[in-house]
Amino acid sequence: MTRTTFFTAAVICMLLTACSYTLPSAKSYDRSETGRVMRVRYAEVADIRPVRIDGESGFIGETGGAAVGYTVGRTVGDGSGAKIAGAVGGVAGAVAGTAVEEKLTEQDGFQIMVRTDAGDELVVVQPADVVFEVGERVRLLTSSGGRARVEKR
Q: Which of these, 48, 67, 68, 116, is most buried using a 10 Å CB contact count?
């Protein structure tokens, strides 16, 4: 295995690992939410719509893609031709890495409208890891920072 092949494979593995981030949902919590007080309201599911939650792009996809593109581009030609190909490959790799990271972090979700026992109607969008039915009684958890989630009772 050449150094270029090994480096490319290592960067791709890092990208796939970094892109495995999931949004907090009814089943999972972000580390920053631990130990925080959340307000609990009881409600009934009034409506559910499937949605697509956009993926995130950031440093990992862009940088990893640029590194792979540069490395592969440098294998084309000699001298200044290899340098130019490396630069073009780096830019193309950064664009491709960003797109790959966005696609890998997309999620199916639900837009859940709930009607609280106090009569308020609220909408929460969260990953589709828990299925709810219209008319089902649920808990609505809200934090002081404006985050909310719907949980089964």
A: 68
